Amino acid sequence: MSSETTIAIYGPGLLGGSLALAIQERLPGSSLRLWARRESAQEAILARGIQAEFYTDATAAATGASLIILCTPVETMPALAAQIAMADLSPDTLITDVGSVKGSVVRALDPILGPRFIGSHPMAGSEKAGIETARASLFQNATCLITPGARTPPSASSPEVTGARTPPSASSPEVTGARTPPSASPPEVTGARTPPSASPPEVTGARTPPSASSPEVTGARTPPSASSPEATGARTTPSASPLTRLRTFWQTLGCNVLEMSPDEHDEKVARISHLPHMMAAVTTLAALRTDPTAVSCVANGFRDTTRVAGGDPGLWTGIALENRTALLSQLQAASATLTELLEILGKPDEEELRRFLAEAQTLRRTVPAAVS
Predict the structure, then answer these.
(1) pLDDT digits (tens, 9 = 90+) for 148-159
(2) Domain Prephenate/arogenate dehydrogenase spans what residues (predicted)?
(3) How many domains, in total, are found in the chain?
């Protein structure tokens, strides 16, 4: 279970709105904040039943948050990050995003936000936009790619790099992000923490140095009292590494988490997301630009192949330009493959055409089925 107590979401569109709904459902004890550029967005947020503090001041929305998530277009993130950096942030504040491009975003935000920023990309979405289309289940069984930067503090272990997922262990709840219920067992096993005072530093953002007799100094762990966070179910301020916290957060929302470098992310996503979008646009234009009346004959094959071409042109212009180098490489590979097909049909060579289509069929069968 994620330990984030105050989560600020910037940009309540499809992804930001879905995050808010999922957090309400899976982290009901967390305090939610939503930032939007316009006051008018608040009405749509309330209409979706989202209980959150609403902000149009980016700096104010960040102050005191334990986790900040940027859900705005990637080209707007540097300016937004500069406003967030002016906030009174706790040393433990973690900042991430949901953008489709990582290399340029990490390079732009690292000088502004430092190692507290770690990129995320949940591979979930729709050709539809806006909070009206948001849903709490959007991230269930989705893959989320996390892209640590050069200055990201390492976690104790990173099984997600290989795609493995480590279940919580009774002896290491801090590593997995799990919370152990209190029992009569020794606190070393339960992972209990000393209960906060009437004005806990976790709430104010201040950090109180341990006294000579505190558990932090002596190495002892104090069992929970009846009013402690562990006994009441409340979550305490995160103490795990930033990477562990981020993995745990996305896993709490139902994601399968993988780690990779920002550049590897951009190359892979250019192949399996950005190229297909551009090819859907190419197919739509090639089929309908010169004969729009052909639309009266379309069936499911055309709808399936071109569905993502219905996405927001402004959003996808930004994505394509931000990931231009990797996308150009994949488009050139697609062009070479199309040239291969043109040559086969030009001969024509029945056996070569069958081989071409059979290879595509075999590769397509390796694609995992969608899980709802």
Answers:
(1) 988 888 765 444
(2) 5-372
(3) 3
